[in-house]
Write a structure and sequence with these properties.
single chain, 3-stranded antiparallel beta sheet
């Protein structure tokens, strides 16, 4: 990842988390999401099944704030971001999520920079891509 065109950050094998925060999100959502992600068994075991956690593979995590995940394209062709939380609400929840995940996951965590222009490259192994919505826990 490059931040504002120059500062580089990277991780080895692990997870890239694109974190979108919406108006309805609260601290409890950040805590729940952190616990869920830390326990996910999404890495391949010796039998080829997705059955191993990040901690077991000694993976790393990169967390990137991504308000555009809440884009609505119901009307017209220009996305609307009305569901995305404003920065004064989103940034503290982003920081809380990072704090909780650093406690729940036993691994190295690298972050983007909230609100910055970031160029992100990733290799999606598998591919395993999962959408987790804290408002849809059942």
């Amino acid at each position: 990842m490059r931040i504002n065109g120059n500062q580089e950050r990277s991780i080895g094998p692990g997870m890239v988390i694109l974190l979108g925060i919406e108006h309805a999100d609260e601290l409890e959502d950040a805590k729940w999401l952190s616990r869920k992600i830390a326990g996910l068994r999404i890495f391949t075991d010796d039998a080829g099944k997705l059955n191993v956690s990040l901690n077991q593979v000694k993976g790393e995590i990169m967390i990137i704030s991504q308000f555009t995940l809440h884009a609505s394209i119901k009307k017209g062709t220009r996305p609307s971001y009305v569901r995305a939380a404003p920065p004064e609400q989103a940034k503290p929840l982003y920081e809380a999520f990072i704090k909780h995940l650093s406690e729940d996951a036993e691994c190295r965590i690298v972050t983007g920079e909230f609100g910055a222009q970031m160029d992100v490259e990733l290799v999606n192994n598998g591919p395993v891509t999962i959408i987790i919505d804290t408002k849809n826990r059942e």
